[in-house]
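Re-run with default settings, no changes from the original entry. Doing this only to confirm the output is reproducible before filing.
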Amino acid sequence: MLVVEALLAGFAIGAIVGLLGAGGGILSVPVLIYLLHQSPHNAAAGSLVIVGLTALVSLVPQVKSGKIQWRDGLIFGILSIFGSVAGSRISLLINEILLLVLFGVLLAGVAVMMLHKAITIRRDENLLANTEKANTEEQPTKESEKSPQARNLFALIAAATCTGFLTGFLASEEDSS
């Protein structure tokens, strides 16, 4: 029965990640812990495999459409590795309950940031719709105003290192010896 639950959960997580474009770790960790009865450390590490495989499959159509920013992606990936190593070492010093609490705090923080961004986007859309002088087709978006080379390299480095650290910290497997 556990295999059937795992397959159904995997399919559901894959479908949701495919629809939303993100969230595999956020969805898979609780499923692995509470449905499949894995330890928090093992579930977090297992979610990395799930997210990694999902990302690889999702990469193919993005490469074909030319939407990949290779320089930023490589910088982010390499620096994330270094942050992950540091985070995994520190994680070994934290007990599993505190690790789950910290994961919950991270999820709450991400939820607040996503909600804030959604409200800001909606407010900006309403402002634009209410001004007759603005035509949305003539207005460049914030994304198109900056080229990938013009992005703040420091922000990229900080985000990559922080992401890697949090990934390693929350996904480190406890040493059982």
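Residues 144 and 150 are 11 Å apart (CA to CA). The mean pLDDT is 78.
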